[in-house]
Amino acid sequence: MPSPRLLSLSLESKSRLQIEYANWDGETCLLPVDLDYSVGNSEGTFDTGGFHFSRSARDVDLAGNVLHAQLSTSGGVWWDDQVVVELEFPKAPITSGPPRVRLHRSDPQRLSPWCRNLRLVGKFMLAGQCLQADGSYRDVYVNLDKCLGHNNGAFDRHGRGFSSSAAAVELVGTMMYAVWNHVGGPGGVPGRAAIGLETILHVTDGVPKPLRQDITPEELDLEVLRDDPWGIQERSWIPNATNIRLLSYRRKRFWYLVADFQVPGGTFRESLLALHEVLGPHADQMFGGPWFSSPDIPEPARETRLENGILRASFQGRGAWQERSIDLRGIVTSRDGQLVLHRSGSDCPGCRELFYAGVLYTPWSGHITKLDLPSVKSVRATCVLCRLFNDTIKSYTPRAASHEAWVTTAPGTRESWSHASKREVQLVVRATLGGKHKWQALLRPKPSQAATMMETRYTLLLDVEAAGTEDDDDEKLSAMPRRLATLARNNSNSCWLEPERRWSVIGEWFETCSTKHVGCRDVGDDAPELPSRYLDIGPGTGEDGRQSHVARVITASPGERGSYACLSHCWGGSRHVCTLNRETEGRFSAGIPADLLPPVFVSAIAACRRLGISRIWIDSLCILQDSVEDWQRESPKMGQYYSQCEICIAATSSASSNAGFELHATRPSAVRSSAPAGPRSQRRFSLLMQPADQAQPPPHFVQAQKTDTTVRDFPLLTRGWVLQERWLAPRVLHFGKQEVVFECAETTACECGGAAKDLMEQIGLGAGFAAIRSTTTARHGLLRRRTHLEHLPWDELVPMYSALALTVPTDRLTAVSGMAAVLYAKFAANSGGPKVSGVSYLAGLWRHTLPRDVAWFVGETLLRNKANEQRLEVTGSRNSESRKPRPEQYLAPTWSWASVLDAVRYLEAHDQISEFRVLDTHVSLATDNAFGAVAEGCSLHLQGKILPTAWTLRPVKNGTEREFVLGDLVGTQQLDAEDSPGLVFAPDFDIQSPGIHQVRPMDVLYVFPVLTQQIKYARWIREAAEMFDASRSTSCLVLKAVDGLDPKYGDVFERVGFAEYANFGGGKRNLDSNAYEMRSFFLV
């Protein structure tokens, strides 16, 4: 009788295995097996005790009896993994039945059969030999730091950089062990962890590769370059070293020098030195500049080679490749069988241990160099660096029984070679306080005498001054010793390190802007006309000679001119008592007592006096707060007031009028150690030391892209009224929690010096990194950089403004009316007349750009590249419930963004073509302000295409949200899929909220195309570039019929949502098959 045997294994689907076998009777049988009931996925690895692996698997394949797949982690990273499929047949015919399927892991098969001589070079570089297809073995190296991390005393397969914190690492076979000190924090015990290399690596094409798929090939593409490939050197340039070689990344400027050293017993031990770390101080020799350029730039070097200690490579500059070299023989040597740096650069006994190869060495690895404090103190008179160390300890630390100090680099500055201003060299001082004196050693200590330790960090900076030139970097570099060129340069203003200079620096900013920035003052030579009321803040005295008031309200004469400041501030949750009204008007005209003014007003007045300004406009003291007529008369002028003021004082970090801003120095001055006077200037350079927490720049506006960050640090900038105050004023002086920021249309400056740099990073990187498909909000965020107002497109201003908060919803148009008025005036000036042909303002939109302006939407974009692609630009949910209801109180017509209370967005414009005609427009103004609030009766008379459709709700795949679908609209919102009916639309508001604006399931909706445009996606999605370039999308308004109107008006609709779709069918794009009907109608 034949024995049962396996005939074939095949994979019918991602999770269905088909087994063909012969039983005890010789019959051929088929056994289908659902693998989802036999194996699961546990963070990227097959789990033989789990279920439903296929839900998070892709590229499932069966090779022989080994099941391969890529499995996703909870973080979305894909890992390669495999399991072996084995069959267990019944052992006797009496127990005949189908075979039992067993799955087991096959990790040892990934490395052991293919690799030999595996070893660690240093703590992270795996070296070995891999079997090639021709039967030979090839030397291979893998940087394990790229694919292995550390978490709480254990290896982390999903992390990186495990070696930076490991005290000891050892490899035994394919099992790697590591010890981490202080697991769980200081005082913890060393922890030993182990991991099998088979769980992170496998061999393919004769090369070890990571199982995780988020590691690019460039990160592991190391080639081995021999220093003496022909064996012609008689003697190694590194003492006692043999087999010197360079491990070079082909596409990144990362280089590792490796050499063999003979150890007792006749064996050899390898030593590794990361050249890209140690070459930073010597970059000027090879790269033509004082700082090491970024190693992360793709393909920055080619034709790298090492020839008898000379490192050569070609670099691209000005369109051509140029070869450069650096002599490693004066930088690298050996000591005790290890590659090390030469010790040279200083003969000072206090600081010479800090210098290697002629420069102050600032390693990335967190290496510390302990200082000999008695030696430092003894040479403080002759050594500028030791004097700085000594004075820092003396100035900042209290008297103590003992001190110890060391120099290191700040945590988290590993990538700092590419940005010199971010590389922090730190002095760490540990002071022992309250201990016993020597003569008390035999006495029982009192509790108060117990010794305590205090550890503080200070940042070391280089401050260079050039004689006779301004900002001349070459002059500055030539004026300092090269041995200090590795120190981070001080880029902050002098008042950041010496706070007593704050107001002199502010005065310089103000003077430069007022006299040299032509674009910051668009007025004639005459002083501007004063506001209707203003505060006179000149000193007032009584009969006793004492100051009787801080300010008094002045009513300006018609045509009176003069300079003045404006205040921008938050009122806060409750109205303050110091307001102008009919009762206080007379008293405040005589003078406002100092104790009655809220702190913000007092601080603003003090700031104006510092700047020599004697008038200020404050809304609550210059507009009658109990008079609607005065408000309606003055509010349209607020844009004019801010645009013509001398400066706007902004209480940017004050959440209410009761929280003033600090005008005095709140930071300690830095310790400065100046070099002796040289022949070319009185002071060529200085070394500075400041507390490390002070060296970290405070948050700036451009970093505040998240609402919670803005509310915490800059509450003023979350307010709707403030947008036009900030943009219209020629210059703004922001008072933050830690510093003052000066802002105008041509520059942004702050005390720490970081604001301008952050702006440049935002301008350089912000255009594409926020999302897959660009919108106006994705490109610039809430707080984009100030510029000339006429350069700000309306479709960028509206998203910024709509995201801000207003206490009174009916102010939604009024609070931006000043900017609209200024823009209209500029349109008129450019056209050469008081009126602009074809340009009119329509409740927050402009007629001449109406197709673009009306295509706003709320929430996320609707198109995607392919199935299951994550929409990265989510500012809102698909759920209508996540939106605010449309107020029953009339704010604006439904076609205006001002009719909803959520933030709106626009798609970035690309070759837009209008799909409708404007027959007529009508706007009913609520006041005399042509750019302010509107009343019911606003309408657009349009001619365009209309498509009636049913709508429904359907659940999203995750089950927690629902999306709104137009059942009869045909198209595609996934560019690699063909047209089909049922497209998602974005409601403008919570359309399910009960009330007059509720949209019910039985209501018929109407699709109204307003424009088509070319689809543009971010540059890094290259695989679908042709698809994007060939596709156009249609942007539509979703409308609802308005019932109950006189039939003589014809069709009347109101807007309830937005939709966008593309067309793709029969291999052709942009052929719209929807049965639209051309109609004339009113939109209200």
TrEMBL record:
Tell me, what's a Pfam family for it? HET
Which residues belong to any copy of the Heterokaryon incompatibility domain? 564-725
Instruction: Give the Cyanovirin-N domain ranges.
Output: 115-176
Q: What is this protein called?
A: Heterokaryon incompatibility protein-domain-containing protein
Source species:
Lasiosphaeria ovina
Organism taxonomic ancestry: Eukaryota, Fungi, Dikarya, Ascomycota, Pezizomycotina
